[in-house]
Design goal:
The chain is α+β, with helices and mostly antiparallel strands. It contains ten helices and twelve strands. The protein binds iron/sulfur cluster (SF4) (2 copies).
Length: 307
């Protein structure tokens, strides 16, 4: 590896991610282009020995991997200490056209949203592989936990559906955001996003977490000043008690999947109504005089529809 790369690993890694997102053959919402699927990424880092990863075993479930456990699945013969590992985490925000389209919807996802959920996620997986491949090409051990064959869905006592590696939790650990009432991660670029990550045996300092609790950016939890995502959900899957994942899943599987197939012509799903037309859609919302400051692009009253 060149001296420059050794001295500025984070700049190099972020350039891999941004170059990929700028590549007109990779980051495409529609076949043939030119519209991008994802806006520019936010990138954060955490350390393999951060106690927050052990805490996920309590909060998510004992099945959730620590970075060391995930690393050893990919490199069973390679001795490694947790402190030798860096977790590279990124947030891929939805684009403005995608958010604008979905803001207008009240029951079903817009086509842009559904395409981003399916084809955009495939792009996210290819980005994970690109970051892994570029690190490997420099002799640095790396893996994408969510691409490991052992990655699986699990059932969390507390949260219902969960997985062995939660990209949103990893993004939280890496200083990129906190959780909202609807379970989405509210980041500096908002909640309309997807996350990805790679673990590498490299030494990049952790990104500071600019929050003291995991719900700090949600106006419901901080001041009861917002319930907009409750109103946006067409099937009452969000309440002041949080997100009913089973109701949400049933809506996606029973109502949305056939709609996407018939209306847009591909196998897919997606919803995201609770991620658009809400004050945390595109940034961290702020309360002013006990009322949130609504960004000018949002409708006066978040709309609501029933299936
Ligand atoms: S819409 Fe309001 S209540 Fe829902 S997650 Fe965002 S800030 Fe919290
Ligand atoms: S909770 Fe689920 S069903 Fe409700 S708006 Fe959000 S994604 Fe859609």
């Amino acid at each position: 590896m060149s001296t420059d790369k050794i001295h500025d690993l984070s700049t190099w890694i972020e350039s891999i991610i941004q170059d990929f997102l700028n590549n007109p053959f990779e980051n495409l919402l529609w076949p043939g282009g030119p519209e991008k699927a994802w806006a520019d990424a936010l990138v954060g880092y955490s350390r393999g020995d951060d106690p927050v990863f052990a805490s996920f075993k309590e909060h998510v479930g004992p099945f959730h991997w620590t970075p060391g456990e995930a690393f050893r699945l990919a490199y069973p013969e390679t001795p490694v200490e947790d402190r030798d590992l860096t977790i590279i985490s990124w947030v891929l925000p939805k684009t403005e056209p995608t958010k604008t389209d979905n803001r207008r919807e009240t029951t079903y996802p817009s086509q842009r949203w559904a395409r981003t959920r399916i084809f955009g996620e495939e792009i996210n997986d290819r980005l994970k592989q690109r970051v892994v491949d570029d690190l490997l090409s420099e002799g640095l051990a790396a893996l994408a936990p969510s691409l490991l064959p052992a990655w699986s869905w699990q059932t969390s006592e507390q949260y219902g559906f969960a997985s062995t590696w939660s990209e949103r939790h990893v993004a939280y650990a890496s200083g990129l955001g906190t959780f909202g009432l609807c379970d989405g991660l509210i980041t500096a670029n908002g909640k309309a996003m997807r996350a990805g990550s790679v673990i590498a045996r490299i030494d990049v300092p952790a990104t500071p977490r600019p929050y003291t609790n995991h719900r700090q950016y949600c106006l419901f939890y901080t001041s009861r000043a917002c319930r907009a995502c409750i109103s946006r959900c067409p099937v009452d899957a969000i309440s002041e008690n949080g997100h009913d994942k089973m109701k949400c899943f049933n809506h996606l599987a029973i109502t949305i999947a056939p709609y996407v197939k018939e209306r847009f012509g591909f196998e897919g799903y997606g919803c995201g109504l609770c991620q658009t037309g809400v004050p945390c859609e595109s940034g961290i919302p702020v309360v002013s005089a006990h009322k949130y400051t609504q960004p000018s692009f949002l409708p006066e009253e978040p709309s609501r529809g029933k299936p």
